């Protein structure tokens, strides 16, 4: 038996997002979001599922927080729904929406749980989308005003703030690939939205400093690690482009104020021009306090100009196990991402803001959920986090995705990531075996391997 012990004060947490768990889509003055619209568009979401009720956490949060306390986690990462705060995105502030988050945060504090608040987890007010959404630079101004509203309301109660969750998903997945709301399929739109989101991030960081908010602010990009299939230069370059599309395109400008020139040229060659206005890069490079890293998967690939891929990249199946959503299980990729950040950008504090696995196990005859696949996935990835810490990476905490099964975006309710099983018909919660495994880890702060 080998024991790996985590640093004292290491934070063990769990995460959710507003649209995926809250429900109550038209209660207390909430406006419509792009995901309300997208999920009502035939063919966009599995079986026409939507977030109208989701996990009904809007009403059930007190008992859900009790379960967090029972699990022994020290922090809960959640997002605020912009349409609850400013229903049309740019007009009057909805005090009932703010009151909900005050109540949520107060309940967390009552149980000794630290809030980590994400300002934007994809639920843009539909009224702003009707005016161009993130393609319209005016949305930056509206976001900064929304952020200021939340900062001023919850200052003193929240110490950890993230501006955006997964800007790659906001931009390329939603505007180039088209799998997420609003479902556009133009590369130029993806590049434009990515830049506008990063400018909004930078302006929000500057505002945070100007307001003198006590606490820390960062951003939470999603990352992957694509390993070249061989040492051939063309394979190395193709893997760099594919990984860089997620990692470099967002991390480098935030950390250095500069976009990766190789990728700028590649996009230009594909007809997508990066449009930078005066002062943008200084804003984007505004100093942050931490990086949130979301990691689930990665792969191995090689150069293939006939692959049909934007980056002439072709994944080579390595026979790895996959989760139920079809993603490779590649724990070392998390170590590779973390050490790459240390190597390229120095000693920035890092929180693993999302890591988890989709396994669709339901209750067995004994009434329990035996999700052994998830336990094994988490064990392997947590071990790689420890390995990174031992290698000098400044990892301060780990948030499991997700606290509970929820609305999994375009997959609807067909994919389950939770430590807690949710019966969507009855809203019954059943803690899974992974919940009990994670509780032991959080309470002991060491892992047996």
TrEMBL record:
Active-site residues, record numbering mapped to chain: 166, 354
GO molecular function per UniProt: beta-glucosidase activity
SUPFAM superfamilies reported for this sequence: (Trans)glycosidases
Amino-acid positions noted as binding substrate in the UniProt annotation, renumbered to this chain: 20, 121, 165, 296, 401, 408-409
Catalytic activity as recorded in UniProt: Hydrolysis of terminal, non-reducing beta-D-glucosyl residues with release of beta-D-glucose
Top-level class of the enzyme under EC nomenclature: hydrolase
Residues annotated as signal peptide: none
One term under GO cellular component: cytosol
Biological processes, Gene Ontology terms: cellulose catabolic process
Superkingdom of the source species: Bacteria
Transmembrane segments: none
Keyword terms of this UniProt record: Carbohydrate metabolism, Cellulose degradation, Glycosidase, Hydrolase, Polysaccharide degradation
EC number: 3.2.1.21
Family: Belongs to the glycosyl hydrolase 1 family.
Protein name: Beta-glucosidase
Native species: Paenibacillus sambharensis
